Amino acid sequence: MTNNTWRDVLAASHRALETTVAAVQADQWNLPTPCSEWTVTQVVQHAAGDQLAYASALGVGSGPDFDPFSPSGTIAGDPVALVGAAIEETAKAWAAVADDRESAPTPLPHGELPISIASGACAMDAAVHAWDIAIGTGQPSPLGDELAAQLLVVAHAIVEPLRNYGVFAAIVEGDNGGAEAELLRYLGRKP
């Protein structure tokens, strides 16, 4: 991903998450997802919390008021509104980042990263969790090869140290099947 495309990739990833969450039916919130032992609601909570953490790292908002890595599975209010508010805050934070900025802080253990990787990590989090929710609820994949190819560059830059913390499962072996399948396998998911 280049510095010229990071805003488009982030916007596409945010749209994927918002659209996927908005399409969840009332009886699907407690369904399992590809995220081991997490329901659709828990993935929604986690994704919203992560977006708030990225916004906070950029100086907007105070971050999530819950642990995104220990989601309760209970949302007081509308899950669509929760995700929408988190994405709005994150989009506001990234909009304030100057076009000529070379790096940005992240909530990741990596800290400050080159702008295309920092924004890409935020985008990857939104897009891949949108995929988790889509698969859990029987929706079509919101990723696609074009977006996944951009996010795969980011994944290769940040995932390995995080795999040591258990944030990502081991790589799933298999035939390539395109950028989407390659990204998902690299992140420990079965496409």
From TrEMBL:
SUPFAM superfamilies: DinB/YfiT-like putative metalloenzymes (SSF109854)
Annotated protein name in UniProt: TIGR03086 family protein
Taxonomy, superkingdom: Bacteria
InterPro entries listed in its UniProt record: CHP03086, DinB/YfiT-like, Maleyloyr_isom, MDMPI_metal-binding
Lineage of producing organism: Bacteria, Bacillati, Actinomycetota, Actinomycetes, Mycobacteriales
Residues in Mycothiol-dependent maleylpyruvate isomerase metal-binding domain copies: 10-134
GO molecular function (one): metal ion binding
